[in-house]
């Protein structure tokens, strides 16, 4: 089974690629938005070209966000990395690094930011701030004000729009 994303709405579509040979044209109709599109499966063998290789260093995960399932989306686990983790609603061609696949209209595209750093003792520190967003970011049922930051820790529940999220911090070694 393979999954592709609809080019219009971005929803994943699953299909069984075992029944098709290489370079076969596959046509789809998105069940969500009705967009019709086609893809061509190719079995391309990449030749080794050192000057064309650009390796992006894979950043180590330093915890994750557990997005709780509701009427707008399914449960999701989003990894966090060191530095700024921009959280918001997934939209095609956006530059956020923690997108939530949701239909929740009350979540902005860049709703809030979690900055992960190390304190002077070397422990991980998670700082949450609002994007700024139209509906606000709530921690323990209190809204974060403009320019307000809150240090959060493992198990902290915060809410953006109609979506509740739990921080799962990385275990210290």
From TrEMBL:
What's this protein's name? FHA domain-containing protein
* InterPro entries on file: FHA_dom, SMAD_FHA_dom_sf
Transmembrane portions of the chain: none
FHA domain location: 85-144
Source species, domain of life:
Bacteria
